[in-house]
Amino acid sequence: MTGSSRALSNLIEQLQALPGMGPKSAQRVAMFLLHAPPSTAERLAQALLALREGVRTCRQCFNYSDEDLCPICADEKRDRSLLCVVADSVDVAAMERTRRYKGLYHVLQGLISPAEGVGPENLRCGELLQRLQSGEVKEVILALDPTVEGDATALYLAPLLKERGVRVSRLGLGLPAGGDLDYADQLTVTMALEGRREL
Fold it and tell me: With contact defined as beta carbons under 8 Å apart, do 199 and 170 qualify?
């Protein structure tokens, strides 16, 4: 914002660095915070600090958690024979919104993307294979986005998982090619889960 305070311009610049936040949106948020009661900005600042200081990855599934073991992995009622592999934590949230999936998760923390220099060694693939050693998991659902990167990751993982004697399936009907799991509505994800196919 030309001709305005340096603090305001700095906030707008920092907000623009966030994904999906353009100059106009950043300016609107900054102006909102400037005119809001001081407690609003304080609560936001505290939430950001708490996020950086308190959130970690679950030691078992690599989803974000406040504890060493996330609530899903700690829940004894979950079906431990079923493991859903997702790219990111937002995909766990998308699957949980269906209220139909009752197994556990494994978050890869990304997808294979040679164009971006991301290979299997940059993901949680090794940890996924280690989780299968106990023999408790009977089926692995690859709930990966139907994109080039999602397909590449599924094609890499499927034979490695099958070698370990588990059934491997992938989400089926409902998700459009090139779409993101996180942006799909609850019904679409439910249909994809129920229409999964073996690889």
Answer: yes
We find that the CATH architecture of domain 64-198 is 3-Layer(aba) Sandwich (3.40)
Residue 136: which residues within 8 A CB-CB, separation 6 or more? 80, 81
Half-sphere exposure of residue 137: CA atoms within 13 angstroms, side-chain side: 25
Picking from 60, 143, 29, 131, the residue whose alpha carbon sits closest to that of residue 95 is 143
User: What digits encode the pLDDT tens for the residues 65-108?
Assistant: 999 999 999 999 999 999 999 999 999 999 999 899 999 999 99
pLDDT for 146: 82
Q: Where are the domains of the chain?
A: 6-54, 64-198
Q: How large is the average pLDDT for residues 4-20?
A: 91
Burial of 102 (0-12, 13-18, 19+ CB in 10 A): exposed
pTM: 0.76
CATH topology classification for 6-54:
Helicase, Ruva Protein; domain 3 (1.10.8)
